[in-house]
Amino acid sequence: MPTFTPNPMPTSNGARIVGKGASTAAGPGPDVMAASTLDGDKILSSDGEEVGKIKDIMLDVQSGRIAYAVMSSGGFLGIGDKLLAIPWNALTLDTSRKCFLLNVSSERVRSAPGFDKDQWPSMADTGWGSTVHAYYGREPYWESVDPVVPPHDDPGRH
């Protein structure tokens, strides 16, 4: 399987989008889509290994930004799996392969700090969040400013 090497930092605070239809799709996606359509999507590591699946999308209600994707990793049929918070800006949505790409090795993902489904961390805690962002080599979303994104010229997209 080919490896993935995105730019070291995304151009915005959100997940990057690559693949067929990334900038030309009509309808609600891929720029705007229901979070439920992403549930269960695979996450591939930089070495091409499937390291988990999207379980939840965590929204920072105060800012309106997506903070984290919660990834389920390991286990069997949801039993014994480990949950990991992945900073949203560490992910790239690949619309062609219908998966997310994470520019971290599978070994690093296996060693990542995780949590149990019955004991979630306080994701609003900036100390915890800073540690998670640093682990994945990303700037915390609350410390960066969203760039102004010009509207698309296609009137059908508005």
Low-confidence stretches: 1-11, 153-158
Beta-strand content:
25-35%
Q: Please, what is the CATH homologous superfamily of the domain at 35-142?
A: PRC-barrel domain
What's the count of strands? 7
Main sheet summary: 7 strands, mixed
Specify the overall morphology. globular
Radius of gyration: 16 Å
Strand arrangement across the biggest beta sheet: 1-6-7-2-3-4-5
Q: Report the end-to-end length measured between terminal Cα atoms.
A: 37 Å
Under CATH at level 1, the class of the domain at 35-142 stands as: Mainly Beta
* Count of alpha and pi helical runs: 2
The helix content, as a percent range, equals: under 10%
Query: What is the second-level CATH architecture of the domain at 35-142?
Result: Roll
Helix/strand structural class: mainly beta
Mean pLDDT: 80
Order of helices and strands: EEEEEEEHH
The CATH topology of the domain at 35-142 turns out to be SH3 type barrels
InterPro entries: PRC-brl_dom, PRC_barrel-like_sf
Region (Disordered): 1-29
Protein name: Sporulation protein YlmC with PRC-barrel domain
Domain PRC-barrel: 31-104
Characterization of the model:
The chain has 158 residues and is mainly β. It has a domain at 35-142: PRC-barrel domain (SH3 type barrels). It is 9% helix and 25% strand. It contains two helices and seven strands. The chain has helices spanning 106-110, 126-135, and strands at residues 16-18, 42-44, 50-60, 65-73, 82-87, 91-94, 99-102. The chain has a seven-stranded mixed sheet.
